[in-house]
Amino acid sequence: MIICDTILFYGSHVMEEIASSEAPQNASQPGTMQALTLPEHFNELRKRLLIIVIGLVVAVLVSFAFAERAIQLLAEPIGGLESLQSIEVTENMGVFMKVSLLSGFILSLPLTLYEIIAYIVPGLKPQERKWLFISIPAFFFMFVAGVVFSYWVMLPAALPFLTQFLGVTTTPRLSNYIGFVTNLMFWIGLIFETPLVMFLLTKLHIVTPKLLLKGWRIAVIASAVLAAMITPTVDPVNMALLMGPMLGLYLLSVLMSVFAQ
Fold first, then answer.
1. What's the whole-model pTM score?
2. Which end of the chain is more exposed for a tag (fewer CB within 10 A), N or C?
């Protein structure tokens, strides 16, 4: 609920920035935008970076209220916190702080995006603004789709195999498990951005559908390498769980590239 309210609040401010940036840019007309000098650009950038940092700090402090619940949700795929253990005295506190930082980053993301957009929009052409504001929600949606896929599909399939391998009882450390889950969600979320990246690269005339089709062998090898790097083991089951969606996303990238032409 807090995140939704934050997105709506800063979304309204983004729309105001768009409206103001679409004003005539002829300096001879009253009420039009004036070009900024280099020191003014740096001052504007410094101001917006300061707002981003302050927003992140506030969001992290707010995240302390629900970080424990977030840890419980992350532990559900392995059977809850009772299936984990802590060895070091400071381990639980370290995990709590890490999850609070990650939650704070996500919570402050709408503010961060707003400040970035507000800084660069005045210097963009109308067509560039159009693709910017179309791509940002799409990138966010695809990243969330990757996180959901890793949590609801990949983790339930991979964890039983990993914890029951060789029939030996496994009780992972809390810090190792949380690090594994968050890293997996992050990288799979980024991988799900591939179709949109290829769409934009096609729009910029950097790649073509024909080039992507010709490079399918490289895509297979790259998918195998990335799967081996992201997954905690190199067993074929876990690699296949990640390689399959990656290759499917590559095919979707080709279709997006065709659509972009």
1. 0.72
2. N
